[in-house]
Write a structure and sequence with these properties.
This protein is α+β, with helices and mostly antiparallel strands. It contains three helices and seven strands; from the N terminus they run αβββαββαββ. Strands 1, 2, 3, 4, 5, 6 and 7 form a seven-stranded antiparallel beta sheet that branches. This is Pyridoxamine 5'-phosphate oxidase family protein.
């Protein structure tokens, strides 16, 4: 199997694991080294290359933290399906208006009432480095997807 085929299969596996989970916990590192976690709406926005996307305000504290420490962790869980996913990666802020428009969904108006006209609207791009997951199909044994 070629690397790109294996990569595509890993991305598809990750897409299946997080399918139907609308929220994730994003953990960042503050300047004092402490971890800071908050819920983030996830609209199933994962690229074919395995990149995760979240909407945010460019002036939020999490963006400040990411500008100083790009390493993040994103956790998804579905207790009803006994599925738990932990993703470590590198985050960056993206202010590209075209990308923001491409990824916009009406559900986001809950957090951005002015829609695409919201001041400071931006995207957090998370490049995945490693995925650990537990699910009922694997009898809750930890499994890892690396090299995404």
């Amino acid at each position: 199997m070629t690397i790109s085929q294996e990569h595509n299969q890993q991305v598809k596996q990750l897409q299946e694991l997080i399918k139907g989970i609308d929220y994730a916990m994003l953990s960042t590192v503050d300047d004092d080294g402490s971890l800071h976690s908050r819920p983030m709406y996830f609209n199933s926005d994962i690229d074919a290359d395995g990149t995760l996307w979240f909407f945010t305000s460019a002036s939020s504290h999490k963006v400040f933290e990411i500008e100083h420490h790009q390493q993040v962790n994103v956790n998804f869980s579905s207790s009803t399906q006994q599925r738990f996913i932990s993703i470590s990666g590198i985050a960056e802020l993206v202010k590209d208006r075209q990308k923001i428009q491409e990824r916009w969904q009406p559900e986001l108006e809950t957090w951005f009432p002015q829609g695409l006209d919201e001041p400071n609207i931006a995207l957090l791009k998370v490049n995945i480095k490693k995925v650990d997951y537990w699910d009922d199909k694997s009898n809750c044994h930890a499994k890892t997807i690396s090299g995404l």
